[in-house]
Design a protein that fits this description.
The complex is a heterodimer of chains A (913) and B (121). With 913 residues, chain A is mainly beta. Chain A contains six helices and 62 strands. In chain A, 4% of the residues lie in helices and 56% in strands. The longest helix of chain A is centred in the first third of the chain and has 14 residues, at 2-15. The radius of gyration of chain A is 29 Å and the shape is globular. Chain B has helices spanning 13-29, 48-57, 64-76, 91-113. Classes of the chains: A mainly beta (913), B mainly alpha (121). Chains A and B meet through strand 5, strand 6, strand 8, helix 2 and strand 16 of A and helix 1, helix 2, helix 3 and helix 4 of B.
Chain lengths: 913, 121
């Protein structure tokens, strides 16, 4: 409360400061500038008109010749400046990105009789005030490039430099990124992965950031993806698109050599049937006042994935509607609603992608509603208020196609039986964002922004082993060892609530003409509540400073040097504390008789109060330092070079309370040298209780109290990123980037590790060969985009090429529970993590589109070729030593376990106006 | 001899890389002011509409927004006025309504017909 009172007092004081010109960094954009004559003298009284698709606004320059339009949606604008006696100046095609500022220097010339209008087309713009390094995927790129349509937000993220497989700048793959829809986070509150799936064609623009972000962005340690959806305007606009593909348009990229090593890869991963259509319409309900936008999509795909599965199918109808109401030019209301259901056949069961066969898959039923309401109030030219409320309700149920229990053979590694684990996952998320932006002057020019966020999310996870009718419908999973051996019974019903209040304050402080300091602080108050008990089990209040400097090197607005230090914290994540809520069944181990009939119960661990959460937990955090240089080259080109250092900290995992361990000798099956494993020394004399803690510094002890090993929990990322961009002009555009990076440590960046994993409950996972390259480390990454429209024949080419280092992998051996006196078998690293690496690979996707333009109508017929050169480099290796069984075939250690999709052609047609 | 494995970090490389990058940046800065864009030269035009049209034609008309810009000009040449609802009474407008209805109708049908209904919901 004290922090809140102080914050409000500060806001009140700052609101009284003299308003002035300045630049602000918000989710909306700003177009500002100064009108001057040719001698550099300021021109007051110039009528400046800003034209957009929803109307126009007019201001008159003040005594300093300055104007500013704030709170603008991203999109294209035109600025027209008029003053009697001077040539009218038009700045056309200004492409305002999300949260960007365009600062114009309008030098007006005296009018002559023959020249009355001066028009300037847009060029590459450099924002010399921000310390954020963003990559914007513009509408041009989205419309003309062969970009993947599935899971739009996540896949768009993967196109940006420094991001691959959902891992951004060393962060956890797919879980550490903030996925914003119209400015509000819509992730799954359980683990932070993508929840809302939306139609690719409703995207207006996508901004991908993550480096140097101001305090208004939080809840991420990877990147931020902000997707802005389309809105209507004063003219009707429409899009009809239909994409088709089939088995005959797929190729085979599996070599005989690969198929011999792993027969389950023999069928190439291709699309067997695709029909994806979109119908959209946007326009005015009342000119300059009310606009609408509606979109309907039906996405249907059937494919043969890599690995033993031959069937995967998805049908997703999606409905979107949005209304924008301009009560006045300074009061804008927006409301939108999406309904979709995501139906998937062939989702994997127990064992994972590489080993699951068709009869071991699950069907997914996943409907959702998403709502978003926004209000923007502009108070003159120096203050504006934004309020956003968004949320969703939905669930996904996974139902095995074969209801029989799963069977795993520890000797061969083979799975059989059914998928093994039906599940139901329910979610509700609501979030309110309020922010106030204020421009002021005091020792320079300030753009203050104050905001708060309130999040309430509900999670319910019901998971169980499959019921076995042969054993009284008990939920069971069978563990064989060449023959029936053990059975495990387990299920849970976990319910929780994430509660978060966030306050932030930031200032973009322009000191003089060249230097800008971007200062901010963000305070998150995060609690995790057990719904059943009504009490908070998790509590953290991280404070996140953000400090950045931007310096216009030569004072011309064409180059900038940036430096940034900030602390980034994860969002509210149920994963961290979900095991501590009630609802966990007893974990029971049975002997198994021939015919898979249960024998005697040999072990039972109570599910009640098995996990507890440490009182002194620190929330997972990543410290970031980066330095960047950006330079405009030859008017239409831009170069950006960035060095990035990120250090992840405050990792959370669980440990066995009071456990003691005996070192035992074990022969490494690869090197034949002795290595040390750890046997649970006091298993029979202590209760099996776990505590969720910050794992750094935790010590594993022998029965005598001797320290056997201390956890040094760390994960560091170093990267150098070079990006060249060429703006769309004279029919072509391009972007080329190269990133060198290294992600190393003892904490992996795969899944929940470091946020809510199980990897430190035994020293056999925690201490042995743990330090090394992270699972999503990519040493080298090259990405090239280009787009070119051939004149006269009006054929457009769009291409995307990437050459990326293969992923690291680690050989492991499976050690039985009896060897180490543990509750289950354990996978032990036989070499330092990431000691081996898959081959690098290059892939090229191409779009060729024939454009027919008739008046207002644009017709396009296109062909997308994904993986045009049919690259067949394996993307994963079989990591279990010496071998494992996949779909009844023995696959040796090191042999290919997965391969990328083969060349696939997709045809599409679209009509837009 | 039995020994426990304790993770150890190596940090000597951390100091070298940032310095190398900083040096490279400083060296690269020197010639760059000369590479920035030339002052923008205005296009000659005798009217505002023609001036805007010249500017638009210099850009590749590949995105829908460019088509919309041209739409405004085409309206002046006798094409349908996209700012009025009367557009939907035109033949093109009727086709638009028909395509929207067909696409929406089938999607609504699919939402029910293709739905996987999980047990217990």
């Amino acid at each position: 409360m004290k922090r809140l009172a102080f914050g409000l007092s500060l806001v009140a004081a700052l609101l009284l400061l003299v308003p002035t010109s300045g630049d602000a960094q918000t989710l909306t954009g700003t177009i500002s500038g100064r009108a001057m004559d040719q001698q550099g003298g300021v021109l007051p009284g110039v009528t400046v008109t800003l034209v957009s698709r929803t109307g126009s606004q007019t201001q008159v320059t003040d005594e300093r010749g300055e104007f500013r339009f704030v709170g603008l949606n991203p999109g294209e604008y035109e600025v027209r400046s008029e003053l009697q006696g001077f040539r009218t100046k038009v700045e056309a095609g200004l492409d305002l990105g999300i949260g960007k500022t365009i600062d114009l220097r309008l030098q007006m010339a005296v009018a002559t009789l023959s020249e009355t209008v001066e028009v300037t087309a847009n060029t590459v713009t450099i924002d010399t005030t921000t310390t954020a390094t963003d990559n914007t995927v513009s509408k041009d790129l989205l419309f003309s490039m062969p970009l993947s349509r599935t899971n739009a937000a996540v896949n768009t993220l993967n196109y940006t430099p420094g991001v691959n497989s959902g891992s951004a700048f060393g962060g956890n793959s797919d879980y550490a990124n903030a996925l914003l829809l119209d400015g509000v986070d819509t992730r799954d509150p359980e683990g932070g992965s993508a929840w809302t799936f939306f139609n690719y064609n409703i995207i207006e623009e996508v901004q991908v950031g993550g480096l140097g972000q101001p305090a208004e962005f939080g809840g991420f340690t990877g990147a931020v993806v902000n997707t802005i959806t389309k809105s209507g305007g004063n003219k009707f606009s429409s899009l009809f698109e239909w994409r088709l593909s089939g088995e005959s348009l797929g190729s085979d990229n599996v070599s005989d050599e690969i198929e011999e090593k792993n027969p389950s890869l023999g069928e190439p991963a291709i699309i067997q049937d695709l029909s994806d259509y979109t119908v959209q319409l946007g326009g005015p309900l009342a000119k300059d006042k009310v606009f609408f936008f509606g979109s309907v999509q039906r996405y249907y795909v059937k494919d043969d994935p890599s690995g033993p599965r031959t069937l995967h199918k998805e049908v997703s109808p999606r409905f979107n509607g949005k209304v924008t109401y301009n009560l006045t030019p300074n009061d804008v209301f927006t409301g939108s609603l999406q309904y979709d259901n995501y139906n998937q056949w062939g989702r994997t069961g127990m064992g994972g992608t590489y080993v699951v066969t068709d009869d071991r898959t699950r069907e997914q039923d996943s409907p959702e509603y998403i709502w978003n309401f926004q209000y923007r109030k502009i108070f003159g030219t120096s203050t504006f208020l934004e309020a956003k409320y968004t949320g969703y309700w939905g669930y996904y149920d996974l139902t095995p196609v074969n209801p029989a229990p799963a069977i795993y053979d520890g000797e061969s590694g083979a799975y059989s039986g059914g998928a093994g684990n039906p599940a139901k996952y329910d979610r509700t998320r609501n979030q309110l964002n309020l922010s106030l932006t204020k421009y002021a002057s005091a020792a320079g020019q300030h753009a203050f922004k104050f905001g708060m966020e309130i999040e309430r999310s509900k999670i319910r996870n019901r998971w169980s082993y499959a019921s076995d009718p042969n054993n009284g419908n008990q939920p069971l999973f069978f563990y064989d060892y060449g023959m029936p051996y053990l059975a495990y019974s387990y299920n849970y019903d976990w319910q929780g609530k994430n509660k978060r209040e966030t306050f932030y304050a930031q200032d973009q402080w322009k000191i003089g003409n060249r230097l800008t300091a971007n200062l901010g602080v963000r305070i998150d108050n995060i609690r995790g509540e057990s719904t059943v008990e009504g009490e908070d089990l998790y509590s953290a209040t991280p404070v996140s400073p953000r400090l950045g400097l931007a310096y216009d090197l030569f004072g011309q607005g064409t180059s900038v040097l940036r430096a940034f230090y900030g602390q980034l914290y994860e969002g509210a994540v149920f994963w961290t504390w979900e095991r501590a809520v009630p609802g966990t069944s007893d974990y029971v181990v049975y002997e198994v008789n021939p015919g898979y009939k249960l024998g005697a119960e040999i072990d039972r661990v109570s599910g009640a109060s098995k996990y507890s959460v440490s009182d002194s937990l620190k929330h997972p955090r990543t410290d970031e330092f980066n330095i960047a240089f950006e330079q405009q080259l030859f008017r239409d080109y831009k170069f950006t070079g960035t060095y990035i250092r990120r250090e992840a900290k405050n990792f959370i995992d669980s440990v066995l309370v009071g456990a003691r361990w005996n070192p035992i000798s074990y022969t490494n099956p690869i090197t034949k040298a002795p290595m040390t494993l750890y046997s649970w020394a006091n298993r029979s004399s202590i209760d099996q209780k776990y505590e969720i803690i910050n794992i750094d510094g935790y010590q594993y002890l022998s029965p005598s109290g001797q320290v056997l090993g201390t956890v040094d929990a760390y994960r560091n990322y170093d990267g150098v990123m070079l990006v060249f961009q060429r703006a769309m002009k004279n029919r072509w555009q391009a972007q080329a980037s190269y990133v060198w990076s290294q992600t190393k440590g003892t904490i992996d960046n795969d899944g929940a590790e470091g946020v809510g994993g199980y990897n430190f409950e035994t020293p056999n996972n925690a201490l042995i060969n743990r330090d090394g390259y992270a699972s999503y480390d990519r040493t080298h990454e090259t990405k090239i985009f280009f787009g070119y429209q051939v004149p006269k024949i009006e054929v457009m080419f769009g291409g995307y090429y990437r050459y990326i280092s293969g992923l690291p992998w680690t050989p492991y051996g499976r050690v039985s529970g009896s060897t180490i006196n543990y509750t289950s078998s354990v996978n032990v690293n036989l070499e330092p993590r990431g000691s081996r690496r898959n081959d690098s690979f290059g892939r090229f996707d191409l779009r060729v589109e024939k454009v027919f333009q008739t008046g207002i109508h644009r017709f396009g017929v296109y062909m997308d070729a994904e993986n045009l050169f049919n690259d067949g480099t394996p993307t994963g290796a079989q990591t279990r030593y010496p071998s494992t069984s996949i779909a009844g075939e023995t696959v040796q250690f090191g042999d290919p376990a997965s391969i990328g999709t083969a060349r696939q052609l997709t045809f599409g047609m679209r009509w837009s106006f | 001899m039995r020994s426990a494995t304790v993770t150890v970090r190596s940090s000597s490389w951390r100091r070298t890389l940032p310095r190398a990058v900083a040096l490279a940046v400083i060296v690269a800065l020197l010639p760059l002011p000369a590479l920035a864009g030339d002052p923008i030269k205005p296009a000659k035009a005798t009217s505002l509409a023609a001036a805007v049209e010249n500017a638009a034609k210099r850009e590749a008309p590949v995105a829908p927004r460019a088509a919309a810009k041209q739409g405004g000009q085409a309206a002046a040449a006798g094409q349908p006025d996209l700012s009025k609802w009367s557009f939907f009474k035109s033949p093109v407008g009727i086709v638009v309504i028909g395509a929207l209805a067909a696409g929406t109708g089938y999607a609504i049908y699919s939402a029910s017909n293709d739905r996987i209904k999980a047990p217990g919901r």
